[in-house]
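Predict fold of ATP-binding protein; 396 aa.
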Amino acid sequence: MIQRTTRGPGSGNLAVPRFVPSGRPGVSAAVALTLARSVIVLRMLCALATAGAGLALDGALSDQLWRLALLLVLVLLAGFQQLRMLPRLAQGPDRFALIAFDIAIGLSVMVLGVGDLVSLVYQAGSAALAGVLIGYRAVPVWLGQAVQAALAAWFVMAQQNPSDSTAAVLLISPLVVVPVGVWAVAVSRWFTRRLLDLLETEGLDPEELQALVTRRLSRASLGAVGLRPANGSLAEQLAHTLTRDATAALERTRMPVRGLRFDRSDENFATALKRLCTEWDSSGRTTLATDLAPVWPPLPVRHELAQILDEALDNVSQHAGATRVRVTLAERRGDLVLTVEDNGRGFALPLDESALHSGDYDGLAAMARRARSIGAVFSLSSEPHSGTTLSVRMAK
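Predicted 3D structure, encoded as tokens:
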């Protein structure tokens, strides 16, 4: 059997004001940019604070003054460069480039300031930055940082007789990296949920919604710290894009699907989907079975899932030659999963996923785009004479 899976974040134009994708992937990208700015700014401020504390303790005539100053200059220059790079980070590969740049600077910081608090601050900030940008895909980065810090601690303590404060920093450094990274991912997910709840709130005026989103993003990104760009702060640019997308998504929910509306948030979504299935089944050409669990997703999610189901059922009636089809809506491991299975003739999926967008599979490509717009994973399994299974899985 051949299986294809299409996953977000989708695509987006990086020109201002749109430099994040549309839909839920855009919200995730906006949160990544917002919290990345916060991490970078906090790391710069903490580096200044620890450097000041070092000067106060060691005195201006300390023979370590030059090293501390060099460390501080390196951290600040890297931070300012990263802040300039942030608006280009909506697409995944650019995020990995920034993380690679951060790791390279981190190595220099460790060499110059092994055992220094500034180095510890930078390593912790690197773990948090990777966490907010790429989530748990940063685990190899964290483990590499922890091993690197442990080797540095072993080397210094074996070759030298460090002071108690230096020894403490050396021992703590390998232990803080992974917890800080995990904490950053948890904060990112929590903030994403809060922002989605706000953007999917019904009845808010677009200007009021944009003001609320701007305020929330500005606070989270420490927007009061730093220079204000000529085209508006990062929070303002993101809020403009997200509000425009959210307003358009809510307007689309008023459009009927097979003559039915899916814009009632107080209605059990299973009930609404059951009506859609009944409407399709009225032709009587295929036996339809349903297993629909009660769920109450946001309106934009309801509408896109209904569109996907409608297009999937159309494919069954027009192309599959099936006698039976089963529609399932379930909650599995905290995810919302919509599945459509038929016993039709099936087909051989193309080896190259890009062929789905060649024009021969317009229906499948449209369903994949709709799934991406709500941050869901679209999967399709089929083989000749063995039916087809379509699945959309979305984290709640």
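Residues 23-58 form the longest helix (36 residues).
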